[in-house]
Design goal:
5-stranded mixed β-sheet, about 20% helix, Uridine Diphospho-n-acetylenolpyruvylglucosamine Reductase, domain 2, elongated, alpha/beta, 3 helices, two-stranded antiparallel ribbon, 2 domains
């Protein structure tokens, strides 16, 4: 199923749909999640559209980036996943990076390293 908004089509999964469990998959396996609908965002515009969708229906909403958090607010409501938002842009001159919501630290390290830069790290690069 797709959800069409002004800028794109989002993949939508509901309980029982193929891919629903895979979209929920993450590192946190100690707690079950059961959102009524999961949106797979690819851009900030997608996230905005999903937030509006949830607000218009007065539904709780949660966000899952790479699967470490507990998007408990989405229980029975809306979950937006951002793992497809995985772009890193490095401005070597300004010594800054723009990082989308689904990026893992290892991706930032790999993008910054050619410029002799490195992000602050408090966890393994796989997170």
């Amino acid at each position: 199923m797709t959800f069409v908004h002004d800028t794109a089509d989002l993949t939508v999964r509901r309980p029982g749909d193929p891919g629903y469990q895979e979209e929920l998959a993450g590192f946190q396996t100690g707690f079950g999640r059961r959102p009524a609908v999961v949106f797979a965002a690819r851009s900030a515009a997608d996230v905005i559209a999903v937030v509006r969708y949830a607000a218009e229906r007065n539904l709780p909403i949660g966000v899952q980036a790479t699967g470490h958090g507990l998007p408990g607010a989405s229980e029975g409501g809306v979950l937006v996943t951002t793992k497809r938002m995985d772009r890193v842009t490095v401005d070597a001159e300004a010594r800054t990076a723009r990082v989308q919501a689904g990026v893992r630290r290892g991706q930032v390290v790999a993008a910054a390293e050619p410029y002799g830069l490195a992000p602050r790290m408090g966890a393994p690069p796989t997170l």
